[in-house]
Write a structure and sequence with these properties.
Blueprint: H1 2-40, E1 41-52, E2 55-60, E3 66-70, E4 76-80, E5 85-87, E6 98-105, E7 111-118, H2 122-167, H3 172-197, E8 202-211, H4 221-234, E9 240-246, H5 254-275, E10 287-288, H6 301-307, E11 309-317, H7 323-329
Parallel strand pairs: 3-7, 4-7, 9-10
Antiparallel strand pairs: 1-2, 1-6, 2-3, 4-5, 6-7, 8-11, 9-11
Helix pairs in contact: 2-3, 3-7, 4-5
Length: 331
């Protein structure tokens, strides 16, 4: 009887011991899980210095270092404020915009963004809205190109039909009228196709160089004057675009120079928008090229000063100049 009682006592104590051990280990597991989750979370607030597709470089306000942020299809982008909270397209993320990106750090040390937001200040509202307009215009342009292609196909089919009609010998007069209409359509279609193909063929109509102090991307008075003169002298040019390219001398490392050239290009773009009255949609996304494409040899301080520059060009598409000719060529 005593042996049986001892066995019952051991069976009764065993579950209690297991419950105690589980309770003791639970806080440790929670703490470790919390630590891993906390280590993976990432947040950065700063100014966009450049963008390449879905990769955005942000100059962190805390330490000034460039953080690489990846934008995915699931990334939520919105402008927020006291009165409104609006979801935006990824095209709103342009150089010069101040944003806050939240997400997780991947194996490469980059941030995979789950949420990107910006305050509705003057720059954010203007850029975001104008980028939305550009996206809409791009979609409309694609639709127009598709329609133009349809016109070309229809003209080809019509020409073939007219040839068959002529071969069937259904009257010289009817064949002549059909051939005349086909020729007029062919001229119009050819002109439209040439205009579309020439949209990527831009002509440089004016340019200016803006120069910077060593290790600086701050515009000086001479640089501002050069930009003002360039824009005021060409503001009446129809359909112009502004191309901005930043460069450095060979002083410093390649990575540092790349970032500095991007900051110089972004500073010029921001000045043109805020002080020279250039709409953001006219500015091609500013680009930095580091110490490449040197304008001088870098052998002395004078040559290096010539390489610490931003080149600004006023560009006009040749295709836009053909619109009136296309209209007159149509029957």
């Amino acid at each position: 009887m005593k042996l049986g009682s001892g066995r019952h006592i051991r069976f009764a104590i065993l579950p209690a011991v297991c419950l105690y051990l589980l309770a003791a280990m639970a806080p440790i597991a929670v703490a470790e899980t919390s630590h891993v989750a906390k280590a993976r979370k990432a947040k950065v607030t700063g100014t966009i210095t450049s963008r390449d597709g879905n990769t955005v470089n942000i100059a962190d306000k805390k330490d000034g270092l460039t953080k690489i942020v990846n934008i995915t299809d699931s990334t939520q982008i919105h402008r927020d404020g006291f009165w409104s909270d609006k979801t935006m397209n990824a095209t709103a993320l342009v150089p010069g915009l101040t944003v806050t990106a939240k997400g997780v750090t991947n194996e490469q040390g980059q941030i995979d963004a789950k949420n990107v937001s910006f305050r509705p200040d003057a720059f954010a509202i203007t850029v975001a809205q104008e980028q939305q307009i550009i996206a809409n215009k791009g979609a409309a342009g694609h639709a127009q190109t598709t329609a133009d292609q349809g016109v070309a196909n229809a003209a080809t089919a019509q020409s073939s039909a007219n040839q068959a009609q002529s071969t069937a010998d259904q009257g010289v007069a009817s064949a002549q009228i059909a051939n005349s209409a086909a020729a007029a359509n062919a001229v119009a279609v050819q002109a439209v196709n040439k205009r579309v193909s020439d949209l990527g063929d831009y002509t440089n109509v004016a340019s200016a160089g803006v120069y910077f102090a060593n290790n600086s991307y701050k515009l000086n008075d001479n640089g501002k004057a050069a930009l003002n003169e360039l824009i005021s002298s060409n503001s009446n040019v129809n359909g112009y675009r502004v191309e901005i390219a930043g460069y450095t001398s060979n002083t410093g490392g390649a990575k540092y120079n790349q970032r500095l050239s991007e900051q110089r290009a972004a500073a010029v773009a921001q000045y043109l928008r805020e002080n020279a009255g250039v709409p953001m949609w006219r500015i091609v996304v500013p680009a930095g090229y580091g110490e490449t494409h040197a304008a001088a040899s870098n052998d002395d301080s004078k040559d290096r000063a010539l390489n610490r520059r931003v080149e600004v060009r006023i560009m006009v598409s040749k295709g836009l100049q053909q619109d009136s000719q296309v209209a007159s060529a149509r029957p």
